[in-house]
Amino acid sequence: MNSESLYIKGNFGRSVLPKKPNETMKIFVAVFIGSLFGFLVGFSFPSLSLTKLNITSSLICDFSKVGHKFSSNSSRNIRDALPSLIGSRNNSLQSPNMTDLLKIWVPSNPRGAERLPPRIIANESDFFPRRLWGKPSEDLTHKPKYLVTFTVGLNQKNNINAAVKKFSENFTILLFHYDGKTSEWDEFEWSKRAIHVSVHKQTKWWYAKRFLHPSIVAPYDYIFIWDEDLGVEHFDAEQYIKLVKKHGLEISQPGLGPSNKGLTWQMTKRRGDEEVHKETTEKPGWCSDPHRPPCAAFVEIMAPVFSRDAWRCVWHMIQNDLVHGWGLDFALQKCVEPAHEKIGVVDAQWIVHQSIPSLGSQGQSENGKAPWQGVRERCRKEWAMFQNRMSNAEKAYYLGKGIDPSNFTSH
Ligand SMILES: *[C@@H]1O[C@H](CO)[C@@H](O)[C@H](O)[C@H]1NC(C)=O
Ligand SMILES: *[C@@H]1O[C@H](CO)[C@@H](O)[C@H](O)[C@H]1NC(C)=O
Ligand SMILES: *[C@@H]1O[C@H](CO)[C@@H](O)[C@H](O)[C@H]1NC(C)=O
Ligand SMILES: *[C@@H]1O[C@H](CO)[C@@H](O)[C@H](O)[C@H]1NC(C)=O
Ligand SMILES: *[C@@H]1O[C@H](CO)[C@@H](O)[C@H](O)[C@H]1NC(C)=O
Ligand SMILES: *[C@@H]1O[C@H](CO)[C@@H](O)[C@H](O)[C@H]1NC(C)=O
Questions:
Q1: Residue where a domain stops, chosen among 85, 120, 155
Q2: Confidence (pTM)
Q3: Which residue has a Cα nearest atom 3 of ligand 3?
Q4: Which ligand is nearest to the CA of 53?
Q5: What residue ranges are annotated as transmembrane (predicted)?
Q6: What would the pLDDT profile of 120-152 be if each residue is shown by its tens digit?
Q7: Is residue 391 part of a domain?
Q8: CA torsion 151→156→162→165, rounded to 10°?
Q9: CA-CA distance, 372 to 102, in Å (whole number)?
Q10: Same domain, residue pair 115 and 161
């Protein structure tokens, strides 16, 4: 029996936290008698006609709530007393099995928590730090509305420092450290209020799957999941959010300014004359449909920004063993509808992809190949695996619905 189950409030008009077992028993008895009295009063209330009294769910619910507050002993007492009490009024009420009825089982609760009364369930959490003292209700003086994560190594310290400064106090800052070096960041004032997660040599999507569960990041309107090698000179996060809201983007990224590496996709290239763009033209033959990736409904995986709802879907699509995230950009469109309107690139707030080899060079050399080659090969392999899994999953779904997927062409 723990102290929580002894927290009794109500009939005494005050809260009691008894320490000695004797005291505890006294309180149980008192509460039991008190609630029994309440029960009888409720019972003899005239408006509650006896014919209506076939153990309505609310009555049972009240009782199970009461019963649950006490030790199993006192709830057993209630259970023993209840049938005879009711029976004296209407025998047919004895037939529902009280032992069963007093057991809590709520199928609409989250899976595994069916035994809990719904009102105690805290199905979501947050990253807001709390104090060890004082009133819990007064812990949070400030609740950031947005989350930004960077996957970092200490070599990119200065770049990340510059990037973090572009995010206001309305952002929670979360760093995923792949090199195990965390205390070295303390020289920055913001590092003390940041959250640091350190696991050796893992990738952005590995961290995202493990530490950004949708029910944990639920308080945030938008979630930025960014690489460490981004130049943010022409970027301001608050302005970015304004544009994303204005244009109804559920999944977005800042436009990519000119860089020495050159760009892979036309879609993510920054346009100078617009706030936001949602489609583009690619090289001939690259797009089977102008509303589909890579011509529309497409952002890359280096600097994506997700709305809460979009992330709830995308998180489920991230595979536990495929950690580089290749191919994910082509599949993001499955999470929003209509994708070509809700996925886009913000031109007015833009970044530069510096393409600094970081985690990409942290592989292991095998068969005489450079570490980066091994990483690159794995990226490609994962892309193919992801595509296969997606198309097999879709086929299985349609077959399950009695639709032959070979009868229509899939995009
Ligand atoms: C007992 O309640 C049932 C309804 O559940 C009703 O049909 C029956 O008439 C009641 N019996 C008496 C004695 O009131
Ligand atoms: C129930 O109460 C009796 C004494 O009244 C005690 O010996 C027993 O341990 C209690 N059982 C539980 C489960 O608390
Ligand atoms: C009531 O439930 C208990 C425990 O589930 C069971 O042992 C008992 O047989 C049930 N009684 C009736 C009348 O169904
Ligand atoms: C959590 O509970 C709240 C309130 O009951 C509900 O609105 C929300 O949808 C729930 N979230 C999940 C993930 O079940
Ligand atoms: C933070 O959010 C509040 C509320 O939306 C806003 O008034 C404030 O300007 C924001 N802070 C900055 C630095 O933009
Ligand atoms: C698919 O096409 C085949 C032949 O083209 C046809 O026999 C079959 O009925 C079609 N299936 C569905 C579900 O339309």
A1: 120
A2: 0.72
A3: 99
A4: 1
A5: 27-48
A6: 999 999 999 999 999 999 999 999 999 999 999
A7: no
A8: 30
A9: 62
A10: no
